[in-house]
Amino acid sequence: EYKSTKSQAVEEQIQEQKCTKSQAIKEQIQEQKCTKSQAVEEQIQEQKCTKSQAIKEQIQEQNQAIKEQIQEQKCTKSQAVEEQIQEQKCTKSQAVEEQIQEQKCTKSQAIKEQIQEQKCTKSQAVEEQIQEQKCTKSQAIKEQI
After folding, report:
1. What is the pLDDT of residue 1?
2. Chain centroid offset of residue 86 CA
3. DSSP character for 25?
């Protein structure tokens, strides 16, 4: 009776230990699953944040490059416009200078021609006056004789 009871008690204890151990293993497995699942979830979240940050930084770099390119184009265009204006000023200045020179030459030529014309006219008038005086003097001498 005692052996049977003891044997029964040992059997129940073994069974209970098996159940307890089995339950503990199940709980440990569940705990590990939850911990692993949590770790995976955190890793995924971390990767999402890292990827999102990398994309933001890439976009910012591209925007900065575009801004610099636009600024460079503005400067180049401004420089080209400045050079064109300078070229036009020089060309206009040169044209005005040539026009002034042309007008000076034309005016100088006209003045020379006018002076020559006046000399010829004056010379002709003097010649006619001398001729007139000669004729008048000759006539006066003839009348006097």
Report:
1. 66
2. 20
3. H
Integer Cα distance of 79 and 3 in angstroms: 111
Percent of the chain with pLDDT over 90: 69
Nearby residues of 39 by Cβ (< 8 Å), 6 or more positions away: none
Cα Rg of the chain (Å, integer)? 62
Residue located via tokens 């979830």: 41
DSSP state at residue 90: H
CA distance linking residue 33 with residue 41, whole number of Å: 12
User: What mean pLDDT is predicted for residues 36-65?
Assistant: 95
Distance CA 67, CA 61 (A): 10
Please count the residues of the chain.
Answer: 145
Joined together, the tokens standing for residue 60 give: 């910012």
| Assigned token pair, 44 | 């995924």
**Residue 97 carries which side chain, given as an amino acid letter?**
E
Q: What is the mean pLDDT of the chain?
A: 91
